[in-house]
Design a protein that fits this description.
Elements (H helix, E strand, L loop, with lengths): L2 H16 L3 H9 L8 E4 L18 E4 L4 H13 L19 H6 L6 E8 L7 H10 L4 H11 L12 H8 L1 H13 L3 E5 L2 E6 L7 H10 L3 E9 L4 E2 L2 E3 L4 E2 L2 H11 L8 H11 L3
Antiparallel strand pairs: 1-2, 3-5, 3-6, 4-5, 7-8, 8-9
Helix pairs in contact: 5-6, 5-7, 8-9, 10-11
Length: about 280
């Protein structure tokens, strides 16, 4: 079979999986820039609500690249028909149905020693080549891996704000996940990851292994946000305060929940619902 015929058959196969026509896939791939928006937003500190700044006072920013129209629809199809069918290790909580930042934090309840770190520029730091290699490792043919990469990346990186972004980030990080799981299993350490937040805990002191943990993460081509890297007990993990016998919301969430209760005709109380969801795990 000639190369062109093989590619044509592979494109038809991908089209049948995604429920899109081969011509539409080719059109979207060739006109990908027309289906992305772009805006820049300032990063805010979750605890204070204030804008984060660099040492010189410049505000920290992130670029959001949402997809639109038929590209967004085909990305949803890629997520439903391909990405969600991939079995991820149990430690992954971000972008996984039935899991959340709450389930991520709950995993570490009862462990005295906690180590938390954050990946810097996680989404834009993932290159189109890493995405391509992730699809190849899943068993995709080179043409299909090429089309899937083109349909889910922009300007040679993984955009933040599309239906497929978190799921693909999880795939790209899988090799590092498995290395960390192996290390933690040997050393009786609990490991979980919520998108770009990595948490480790244990009933025994494992400070001597934090350097090895960081080494494994960096070996995968990812950068550590050292400002968010902490080793201590009873700390806030993915927005949840984790104690020995229970978990709870931080003070700003409790204050917002109290403020909702002061509004007599308020029928929608998201902070109270969130607070109940957190505390329900303690019973």
């Amino acid at each position: 079979m000639t190369s062109s015929r093989y590619k044509k058959r592979q494109l038809s196969y991908l089209a049948s999986i995604l429920h899109f026509s081969p011509k539409e896939i080719e059109y979207l791939v060739n006109n990908i820039d027309d289906y992305y928006g772009k805006w820049v937003e300032e990063k805010k500190d979750k605890a204070t609500g204030k804008v984060k700044t660099y040492p010189d006072g410049t505000p920290k920013q992130r670029t959001i690249r949402p997809s639109y129209g038929r590209l967004k629809q085909i990305q949803k199809s890629i997520k439903i028909n391909i990405l969600t069918k991939i079995v991820l290790p149990h430690n992954v909580h971000g972008g996984v149905k039935g899991k959340s930042n709450i389930s991520n934090a709950k995993t570490h309840q009862g462990n005295k020693y906690q180590f938390a770190t954050d990946l810097q520029n996680f989404f834009p730091g993932i290159t189109h080549n890493q995405i391509y290699q992730a699809f190849i490792k899943l068993g995709s043919s080179t043409p299909i891996a090429h089309w899937l990469t083109k349909l889910t990346s922009i300007e040679f990186e993984l955009p933040q704000g599309t239906p497929t972004s978190t799921a693909i980030a999880n795939l790209v990080f899988l090799d590092v996940d498995y290395q960390l799981i192996k290390l933690c299993k040997i050393n009786n350490i609990t490991y979980s990851r919520y998108v770009d937040d990595l948490t480790f805990s244990s009933p025994t002191d494992f400070r001597h292994l934090t350097g090895k943990i960081i080494e494994i993460i960096k070996s995968g081509g990812f950068n550590i946000n050292y400002r968010k890297t902490k080793y201590k007990g009873n700390q806030t993990l993915t927005g949840i305060i984790v104690f020995n016998n229970y978990i709870d919301a931080p003070d700003k969430i409790k204050a917002a929940a109290d403020a909702e209760l002061m509004i007599a005709d308020c029928t929608h109380r998201p902070y109270n619902n969130y607070l109940r969801h957190i505390r329900s795990t303690n019973y």
